[in-house]
Amino acid sequence: MTVLDRFRIDGRVALVTGGGSGIGRAIAAALHAAGAAVVLVGRREAVLADAARALGGRAAAVAGDVADRSALAALAARAASPFGAPDIVVHAAGLNAREPWQDVTDASWDAQIEAMLAAPFFLSRLLVPAMRDRGWGRILAIASLQSVRAMPDSIPYGAAKGGVVQLTRAMAEAWGRFGITCNAIAPGFFPTALTGPVFADAARAERIASATCLGRNGRLEDVEGAAVFLCSPASDYVTGQVLFVDGGFTAR
Predict the structure, then answer these.
(1) 252 near 213, Cβ under 8 Å?
(2) Residue 51: CB partners within 8 Å, gap ≥ 6?
(3) How far apart are CA 249 and CA 252, in angstroms?
(4) Could you give the C-alpha distances from 100 to 96, 148, 155, 194, in angstroms and in order?
(5) pLDDT band per the 50, 70, 90 thresholds, residue 167
(6) Does position 246 have pLDDT exceeding 80, yes or no?
(7) Which residues on neighbouring strands pair with residue 187, listed in sequence order?
(8) Whole-angstrom Cα distance, residue 192 to residue 148?
(9) Domains and their CATH numbers in the chain
(10) What's the pLDDT score for residue 223?
(11) Can you tell me the distance from the alpha carbon of 96 to that of 74, in angstroms, rounded to the nearest whole number?
């Protein structure tokens, strides 16, 4: 086996939450290209179906809300139906209400924490037994610049993403003995629906780009290699880590 062969995930099944758009869709496409069958999970059925069609064979869409904890067991079962129990789970579902602190409601707080911090644990816990039985699994969370940096009008989002870092470490400790690695990618500023308000302001986007070492904001393809690495045998001895894919934003 060559070093490049270790980046292949042929025969594996990957579940990607938030897989219909943005970073989730880009990661799903990368894993599919690396050989995995892919199950896209999200709330918008039509968007998911379009993303699955774009991938072609061995891709399926399963509509569901990862923030609805009472429905997670049924969602996990439906996600295993097309190709079998997932070997890889990518937690890319997210939302940022961008509310000033005084406007944050109980419901807004709960929705953001549930989708981005609780769901990665509770959904992973449902999928870990099958990974344990195989002696191999990959869990990939999406952290954020806000895991380590405070930004305006994002207290619940920042709290959730800060928690993702420690959750990743804790899951790595709990499940590493079963051959399951748990890591996270922390993207910089990428043009997605979630960052639409940022990129709608050209001057603001340029200021952010100039704050990186590379002098530009992210392109969705920039996250693909990192995701394939962390979901493949190439990263067999990497767990509990957060990889910042941010053009050097946090290095300055």
Answers:
(1) yes
(2) 19, 20, 21, 25, 28, 40, 59, 61
(3) 6
(4) 12, 19, 8, 17
(5) very high
(6) yes
(7) 245
(8) 21
(9) 4-251 (3.40.50.720)
(10) 97
(11) 26
